[in-house]
Amino acid sequence: MILQEMKKAIGAYREVLRLVRRLPKDTQPYYAKYARENFVNYREIDSNDPNALQELLQRTYNHSLWVLNKYSVDQSAADRLKNICSA
Fold first, then answer.
1. What average pLDDT does range 17-37 have in this prediction?
2. How far is 26 from 24, CA to CA, in rounded Å?
3. Higher pLDDT, 46 or 77
4. Average pLDDT over residues 15-35
5. Cβ of 36: how many Cβ atoms within 10 Å?
6. More confident residue, 26 or 38
7. Rounded Cα–Cα distance for residues 24 and 37 (Å)
8. Are 32 and 20 in contact (CB under 8 A)?
C-alpha cells in the first residue's frame, strides 16, 4: 500500500514539473523550486489518516490549475495530473 502511495505522489510531482515547462521561461525556476520544496515538505503524511494523501493530491491539482490559469495555459494540460490525483 505504501509503495502505491509513493508511486502516486512521485507521479504527481513528475506531472507538476511537466506543467512547469508550459509556463513562461522566466517563471519556470520559481515554480520548479516551489514544487520541489512542497514535495519535500509533505513527504511525511499522517499514516493514520487514510484521506491525507488524497487531500494532498487534490490540493496539488487545484493549485496547479490556479497557476496554469494565472499564465493563461490551457487547463487541459493538467489532464494527466487530474488522472493521477483522482485515481
1. 97
2. 6
3. 77
4. 97
5. 13
6. 26
7. 20
8. yes
Q: What is the DSSP string of the chain?
A: -HHHHHHHHHHHHHHHHHHHTTS-GGGHHHHHHHHHHHHHHTSS--TT-TTHHHHHHHHHHHHHHHHHHHTT--GGGGHHHHHHHH-
CA distance 53 to 77: 22
Grid cell listed for 13: 510531482
CA torsion, points 39, 41, 47, 53, in degrees to nearest 10?
-40
C-alpha cell at 76: 487541459
